[in-house]
C-alpha cells in the first residue's frame, strides 16, 4: 500500500501519486503538494514559519532554546 507523503513546505499530508518531487544537487528530496508550496519555497525563498496557512506557522527551530 502506498504511503501518504508530507509536504516539505506546508506540512500537509497528500496521497501518493500526486504532488511533485524535487531533488536538489546534494541529493536531498523535497516533496510538494502544490505549485503554491513549490514556488514559495524555491522561487521566492519564503519561510513557512511566517505564513499562517502552513502547519509550521509560529513554530521555532528544534536547535534553538
Q: What would you note in describing this structure?
A:
With 65 residues, the protein is α+β, with helices and mostly antiparallel strands. The protein has a domain at 1-34. The protein has one helix at residues 35-43, and strands at 5-6, 13-14, 20-23, 29-32. A hairpin with a 6-residue loop joins β1 and β2 (13-14). The longest helix has 9 residues, at 35-43. The radius of gyration is 13 Å and the shape is globular. The model has no long low-confidence stretch (mean pLDDT 90).
Question: What's a concise summary of this model?
Answer:
By secondary structure, the chain is an alpha+beta fold. It has a domain at 1-34. The protein has one helix at 35-43; strands at residues 5-6, 13-14, 20-23, 29-32.
Descriptors for this entry?
65 residues; alpha+beta; two-stranded antiparallel sheet; two-stranded antiparallel ribbon; 4 strands; 18% strand; globular
The side-by-side strand order for the widest beta sheet comes to: 1-2
- Tally of contiguous helical segments: 1
> For the terminal residues, how far apart are their CA atoms?
39 Å
Q: Which ranges are low-confidence, i.e. pLDDT below 50, for 5 or more consecutive residues? A: none
Shape: globular
Number of beta strands = 4
Estimate the strand proportion: 15-25%
- Given helix and strand content, the structural type is alpha+beta
> Overall mean pLDDT score?
90
Radius of gyration, whole Å? 13 Å
Q: How can the largest sheet be summarized?
A: 2 strands, antiparallel
SSE string: EEEEH
The proportion of residues forming helix, as a percent range, comes to 10-25%
